[in-house]
Amino acid sequence: MPVIRLFSPAPSPGAAVLGELADSVTALLGIPRGHCWLWWQRLAPDTFHRPEWHEGEAAPAPVGFVVCKETYSKSQVRQLLRLLQDRLGDLLGVPREEVYLTVQRAVAGELLVRDQVWSLDGDAAGTALAGTDGGTDMTGDAITDLVPIAHVHNERRELIDDNWGEVASVIRLDAERFTTDALLSLDAFSHLEVVFHFHRVPLDKVQEGARHPRNNPDWPLAGIFAQRGKNRPNRIGVSRCRLVKTDGLDLHVMGLDAVDGTPVLDIKPYLRQFGPREEVVQPEWVDELMRTYY
Fold first, then answer.
1. Binning pLDDT at 50, 70 and 90, where does residue 68 land?
2. Which domain holds residue 26?
3. For residue 214, is it within any domain?
4. In which family does this protein belong, per the annotation (predicted)?
């Protein structure tokens, strides 16, 4: 259960904006909605020293402190910080590079939540994109070990469906887990298959039944598994893109339909032999939907 405190001389942006930010955090971490607590504290002019704040900046970027359990991986924490930086920049209209954040780890045995002292026994929180809030032993077929291997970096931050063809991205592998050996010989391939997490989709927006694709009533109802919308039950995306070059732990690609900060779960070279061996058949509405996608 992350606890986030934001400090600024500016007035609070309002409960709705803070709620949207908290929902983005829970969606990213795969924990239940409402399991992120967030405060905005407005500072009086004589209670801080930060020169740019005293210079009458119209929309000062906040300073934030994030408390989360020690079980969250470094990769997840970096992902969380990037999300907060990007979302605060978008929601408040401030330069994202001016948002300062730091993380404090809650240690097992030193955290009291709902009258229980949190321990590591049976705790699955922080180990997965689809984890729980902690203290719950995940059983059955639940997947608890999906940790991003990389993140997407590009200029595409808005969740817009079309015009991905000319989007240049860098897929940057986690340097704490991988060396360049993981990418050896990948540059012999022209295209990649990328599996990623739709981290910006709130859990309460996930679709499990049928809907009109892109909510367009001119197109017929289709089950969520009969379309490729991002509001999927597990929020997992699969895409193909062109590999431009490799550079250390960076993969430079074109046409990857993933926004900045997207967690990458897997990367594979695309092999033409894995393409369909028969004629591909699809409804007419798909051709219309995809007309300007790339």
1. confident
2. 3-117
3. yes
4. Belongs to the tRNA methyltransferase O family.
| Helix (H/G/I), strand (E/B), else coil: 51 | helix
For residue 16, is it within any domain? Answer: yes
CA distance 99 to 8: 10
The residue that leads in pLDDT, 201 or 283, is 283
The CA-atom distances, in angstroms, between 243 and each of 203, 239, 250 are 32, 12, 11
Radius of gyration of the chain (CA): 21
Dihedral (CA of 65, 68, 74, 77) sign? negative
The reply to whether 194 and 284 lie within a common domain is yes
Structure-block tokens of residue 74: 């470094």
pLDDT band at 131 (very low <50, low <70, confident <90, very high): very low
Same domain membership, residue 157 and residue 102: no
Q: What average pLDDT does range 243-250 have in this prediction?
A: 97
Please provide residue 125's backbone torsions phi and psi, each rounded to the nearest 5 degrees: -65, 145
Work out the angle at residue 101's Cα, subtended by the Cα atoms of residues 97 and 102, and round it to the nearest 5 degrees: 145
- How would you label 157-188 residue by residue, b for 16+ Cβ within 10 Å and e otherwise? eeeeeeebeebebbbbbbeeeeeeeebeeeee
Q: CA angle, corner 77, sides to 250 and 256, nearest 5? A: 35
- CATH no. for residue 38? 3.30.429.10
pLDDT in tens, 250-289: 999 999 999 998 989 999 999 999 999 999 999 999 999 9
What are the phi and psi torsion angles at 42 (to 5°)? -85, 130
Burial class (CB in 10 A: 0-12, 13-18, 19+), 206: middle
Number of domains in the chain: 2
Name the β-bridge partners of 147.
none
